## 1
Amino acid sequence: MDTQQALPFRWPATYSEIPKEVFHREDIYRLELERIFYGPHWHPMAHIAEVPNPGDFKTTYLGEAPILIIHGDDGKIRVFFNSCPHRGTQLQTCSRGSAKGITCPYHRWAFDNNGGLIAAPGSERFPESFRKQDYGLRALRSDMVHGLVFATCSAAAPTLEQFLGADGKEYVGNVLGGDGRLNLLGYQKVVYATNWKEYGDNEGYHAPLLHRAFRLLQWQGGNGTQCVTAQGHKLITAELQASRNASFLDDASLVEFRDKKLPPRSVVVNLFPMSTMTKHMDVINVRYSFPRSPNETEVHYAYFSHADDDAAMVRHRLRQASNLLGPSGLISLEDGAVFNRLHEGSNTLGKVRFQKGVNGVLEAPAFVEQNDEASNLVKWEHYRQIMGFERDQP
Amino acid sequence: MTNPDVLARIDALQIKYQRALDGADMTGWLDCFGEKDASYICTTRENEEQNLPLALMMDDSYDRLKDRVRFITEVWSGTYEDYQTRHFVQRLDCADKGAGLYAVASNFMVAYTSARGRSEILAAGIYQDEISLAGNDAKFRSKKAILDTVATPRYLVYPV
């Protein structure tokens, strides 16, 4: 579906500058859907903890396309378009559930949980060329790491392991409790009035400055590393340090780190194009996110406990997940505020101009200081190349 | 049939709660809760129906309620785009649980208006409350706001 034609759009010669138009133009957004979201990249769709048993399903989106994930009766988790292969009717309308199979309401075509077509009423009047096996649910390429199921619309995508790289795969595991044996705690869902790239342009520079809680709690991040891969993924880790002024809160248990089975560090994985997963304090969080237009980004924050947790640990993760890191979280609400304010403010002429850590052209993979913003420029260069935007000569 | 005086006291507490939130008066909001066994939970119908215990806000003690006030007035101050809310609450059920405690269910609808003056619905849903009339002032022992609005159209700064 790619038009194979780049838009007549020039990219600035200066490596650290991004034209603000890319956050607002409808034609650029349409090309992003084709080349990035429906192109050769992988997107997390569901963790097995969200669909633990045969028959369990979840609905979500890949780009703007409605998606249906089903745990098949054969034990395999498949990712389908949430659309009847006959006339395109949406098949499941609720966010999660369990079913013995699916029947499209329009003409009662029936499918099993593996996606196969079982029956189509009136098929004696179908053309002779009709074969049931050609009309199963349309499955996307999918694969799983640490229980997290990814999908891609593109046959040209590399394998998931190649896409993530060895480091990416390891970091995803570090977020997902080390081994991916998780239980679902629930969801927080929100719409930000921002472009998906502004949502994804968060970095380490802002953290101690925007989030006043770190200052009020005298809660500094420890030593850490930030690596950007050639695929545009950012992999960040930081030692967890205790707050030195936890009594700022009446209930300081909110900022306690209790899971001693895991290394005392926070891990953030930002996968190209826009998926984030974090393990911060005792919060295990996957943020499924998708654009709804150039001006709206929907994020589904899914939280998990670990299979080995006792009841007290589950309770602790639950309280921390509900109050610390989501759209209304103590150390994260301000991110949402900035996403929206970036989008309002970028509807102006000119370019955004990155500074911190900018030191000539970065080559991926790049290791940058933990609190630098230059890491995002590797991702931006990856974006520019995929979009086919030519850089102006200096 | 619940005693009209009881209903009047319950409704007065709900009005006090609405007035506090719509006036961004977080001290007034805190004053709607009893200091012993207090809790405020804001979650979605999706989490409730799927038996998922996660919440959007989980203030399960009076200390947590005080910290909620602190988040809004001290921690986040100056960062978020402020918005004006209007709460509309309609009592549905009221059951006497004994010892001055009542289980009350109410529909709510919350409109919000951005700084640019555009008004939309922030959330619709139901309150499941436990209200104590044992003391001089009616207080929430627990308040649970269950949002039908699963993906809110903006991030929530204030409780609902």
## 2
Amino acid sequence: MSIRLPEELEVEVYRCFRCGYCRAQCPIFKVKQNESWNTRGRMILIRSLIEGNLNASSSVLDRLYCCSLCKACETSCPAVVRLSDVYERVREGLVELKLGPLERHQRIARDILAEGNPFRQPRAERSSSYQCKGPREAEALFFVGCVSAYRKPSIVQSVEKILTSTETDYTTLGAQELCCGSVLMRTGQTRAAEKLARQNTRMFKELGVQKILTVCPGCYLTLKVDYPKLVKDFPFEVVHISEFLSQLLEIGKLQLTKQVGLKVTYHDPCHIGRRFNLYEPPRTVLSSIPGLKLVEMSRNRENAQCCGAGGGVKSAFSDTALKIGVSRMEEAAQTKADLLVTSCPFCCVNLGDASRQAQLLPVSDLTEIVAEAI
Amino acid sequence: MSESLLTRRLEQIVGAENISTEHVDLLCYSRDASENVGMPDVVVWPSETRQVSEIVKLANELRVPLTPRGAGTCLSGGPVPARGGILLVLTRMKNILEIDIANLQVLVECGVVWQDLNNALALYKLFLPPDPASGEACTIGGCVAECSGGVRAVKYGTFRDWALGLQVVLPNGEVIETGAKTRKCVSGYDLTRLFIGSEGTLGVITRVRLRIFPLPQYRLVMTAYFDSLESAGKAIFHVMTSDLIPSAAELMDRRTVEAVSKYMNMKFPECAALAIFEFDGSSLGEVKRRMRQARKLCEREKATRIDLSETKEESDRLWRARKSSGPALATLKPSSLHEDATVPTSRIPEMLMRIEQIAQKHNLLIPTFGHVGDGNLHPIILYDERIPDEVKRAEEATADIFRVTTELGGTLSGEHGIGLSKAPYFSMEHTNPEIEVMRKIKTALDPNNILNPGKIWVGP
């Protein structure tokens, strides 16, 4: 069975002429060192799938799903092929043909539809760490996201401390918040994601908020780019916390007064970095913390290496995600920083796991260190 | 020979985790950056010379073809296993063994990536000058096996000019060291140069000793726009025959400029051709003087506009645009042939004209860009592989380009190698006795025709 792509994306596949420059960028290739796990290899496989010369075997699916959609390959692609768009559409096509996604991703979809989160945690426990139990009327909605809610409650507490101290009129959806559907979108399970988008959007509208604040770049990308396509009418301003904090600093509402005597390096999350060029806001915020010294890794901003977790990789290929995480933490260790700061709860989880395994420097979210400095 | 015997023996040498016969892997290793395809039977990743030697011995014993491969960025089919067999992927042998600052040389394993080496050298303010466009990905072993060049070859030459010695695994598995640790060496035949550019047909290059050079402190870039291709060609020729010694002298024709500006989202002034010059050195005043002189020569050829890149970012952007010429052009039509025909510098203006005539004659688009300063052109023949008549015309145009190239005293390949792509045209450049010498060398070293068979010339 051959896979069909819309004409505009099929052309992209044929524009890849296998120069191989992506070898220098792909984080999966970095740990696998095998061309079939590199962008060029995936494009060869996709071309064969389109032409009907290849069966979507489990080996093929593994190659197509073991990509964090970090877009690093796109920074080196001289033909500027829309590689991550192709990957996402191919995954969607595989799901439509009932050839994908991977078993692990199917289970995540079932869990999300059952409990509203991908971790098989009870729905009611989502807001157990929240200060604001919500929902209530407010100017802004803090969309917490599953990773923060269930895996990184300290991030939720930090965000709420910041919002309270800056007298931001905010609410949460409390236990009613549903997974944004990011992992479903990235693994091609668009129909399931659409259900979540509709339900979440209905709640956003009922609240009457205009601004939605996310701490997770995955939620940010999904709400900002995918929701308007999935639900059509999506009249909300989606803001990432790093942007928001830098705006608060600018207007003088955020006062960072406590000394944080640390040397810190910053890891750019792919979904706000290469996707939206949010490179400077988090750095501006970090540089405003008294006593904090910011040092850069050799690969930063658009050249930053992915943490390895996104795109469904950590759930289905945890070893690979961890290895990539370790290699990123090794880059961080070379800066001799005391702490790695990122602006993504999911990067925090994976880089934190990697750091513990390799016994390297600790990892914090931007909001955690900001909360410390208030 | 059963495949299981081969894979079992290979497993004994490198371990089961370092070989693959999985269809997905074979498929992904069946291509390079050229139009050629060849499926290997097994992909092997050795990690040391001893393993390479044993694998080659095994291939010889079982009479299985063996194709060495680096990063697979080749543009002529060199690492494509034309006759199947073992594909030997050397990218895991990637140690920089020695940076010898006192003697200005390095010793590296074949799988070291060009960019990684230059990053390591930059810490000592040193560099390896030949700079293939694929530098971020390609390996030093591949560069040597294909005798790669690049933009700066116009001043610094190709890998041939920088390799001092090689460690080579011969087709019988023996390991030899060629050359010497000295700049000069006339001790016997120049085996180093025999293996450089031999495209993996004579031996597997496992280590390379290279000269390195102090990194110039200043690099300034100048772009000159012209309203005819010929005047751009002439301007470059004048700069090359002066004492200005540019470290790059590149040309892009109108279609290349248009394609690049579209794909890189960069704006260029309207022109029929543009020339990019780079001047490097350690005295800013001297570099600027040479650039001013070049500017005058371009003005004499009626350049319509001349820009100087003030910052490194601007220069980098320009080089990135230039290096994306091939891929950008490749997107204009479904299929493209990337040639690297090279003529003596004095024949450049004529060659550019002749390529235009060939394009007209065959009713094809053949945009041209390239390292014109050293006569190395990259005419890109664009066609649609789904239209038989266009395929035929593209083949005829290719033959015509090579015919003109040899007529003007040039060569089929300046830096990409002959591989599979240009093998059918090889006899246009070389007489039978010449080819016979090459065949005899091949037979003497590789009597069973194990190493990368099917390359360079057509036939056994």
## 3
Amino acid sequence: MASILAIAEQRDGSLRSVSFEVVSAAKTLASVLGGDVQAALCGPPAIDAVAGELGRYGAERVHVAMHDAFAHYSPDGFAATIAAHIRSSDYFAVLFPASALGKDLAPRVAVRLDLPLASEATALDIENGELIVTRPMLAGRVFARVSLDAPTRLVSLRPNVFSANQQQAAGAVETLAVDGSPDAWRVVVTDVAAASAGRLDVAEAPIIVSGGRGMKGPENWHLLEALRDAIGADAALGASRAVVDSGWRPHAEQVGQTGKTVSPKLYFAVAISGAMQHLAGMRSSGVIVAINKDADAPIFKVADYGIVGDVGEVLPRLTEAIGRIRPT
Amino acid sequence: MAGAFHASMESYRAVKIVVCIKRVPDTESRIRLAADGTTIDRSGIKFVISPYDEYALELALRLRESSGGGEITVMTVGDASSAEQLRSALAMGADRAVRLDGEPGMDGLPTARALADAIRRIGPDLVLAGMKATDDDQQQVGPMIAGLLDIACISVVANFEVANGRVSAHREIEGGVEHVDAPLPALLTITKTEFEPRLPRLQAIMAAKKKPLEEQTANLQAARIRLHGLAYPPERPPGRIVGNGADAVPELVRLLREEAKVI
């Protein structure tokens, strides 16, 4: 029977939603293979109280490793603990979220176990009993289908792509022994500073309002912020490279090749021309809306809907219209 | 922390830094798949140093400048054509280059192993690499090198400080920044920073030709990721301009609501 392990993630005492996506993806695989799903979570003492929720998405057993030093991410402690658990088990595959934490953790686990790792999968399929991972390359200009020649296949999953499906009761929570102690853990997270308290990161937001150089200056960003606020808490701001390079917006908002690749259900490209490196970051959005003064801007070729016009006039009108239909 | 490096490396020995780089297609390159469907057509593609590796090299150069000296070795796993990128790095200011002859693949472990073996012989204080290569986007070789060398690793670093044998760094996470601390020797993977990579002057490009570029075999182990095929992303069906100016907004909102059903 094939066992799939899903790696979950918590922050400030709550499970991050990407954990549910990973468990659900594991459940889908397990259903095809005829197997079970287990989850593993590292966190501070008492995190086991919420860990059972992973069962609702398909995890039959949830292994929880708790330590005071696990209040923040502890790279060496998490990697040692998760690797020890995988080593002592027999998993067909281990799925990590390709979150900031997951993308740091997965290669550390891979090298400890001497196992290959396929990062940032956008699809998982079983063909002839083998796991086929679809993953982007060249900033999403090409997609590769790969398999891993190893008894346990390590894969990280891109956030916002796999759906989180609730199905059943809470899973059985078991304590997982922490491997090692803080003396052995070289890398210490001393502090976490939230950039904008309570706001979704652009890489995880279902709706993105993104601005480019055509906004003319950082002083005009209030137009985009107003639209984001009208949409609500599930919207985040994005930015083009030109705007970040000019210092108008922080790098954390950058969408495109040296920024983030995003898969929101709705992407507003406002005053963004649509350079190749930006398209690479947002072309897998569900619906793309372009607002631009220039009817010939390349962005209109990828947009589903477009308005040609002055953003100073269009945005306030759009903000008002959306404010009327979106519950606050 | 912005804008300055503080480096109190023990001054009896100059700081030793290794920067790992990779040759990749330029961002704006039009990517075409070869007829066999499992390789990229390389003709007409311009190759560059992977952008995040350039940010890493720039930080190494600044750290050396603020330390009052030090040696920077730039290293890559690549075929003979990657010597071009090593010369560019030497022109930016690296002191010596090492090319490990081999073809890096999607499986990061063989590449990491080859680099770790070569780095171990140098024994640097700091290893820097871009957070990911912009061709395969696997984002794994850096942490794997650190694991093989058994040294501390901090990934996706936007800025860092070295003092008293330790490195403290800012790492980008969702919705904020993690402040991270680790002892040297350490490996840092670098994301886009506020310091744009310098463009070498002609004089530096000429001088780079005389800097040492050593070639060794990479002795790559067999890759364990098998490529079944490459494909273009699915074509988006053509969209439409809804209208001009603010008057088009009501129709846009109606379409988003009733047709696309996204709001």
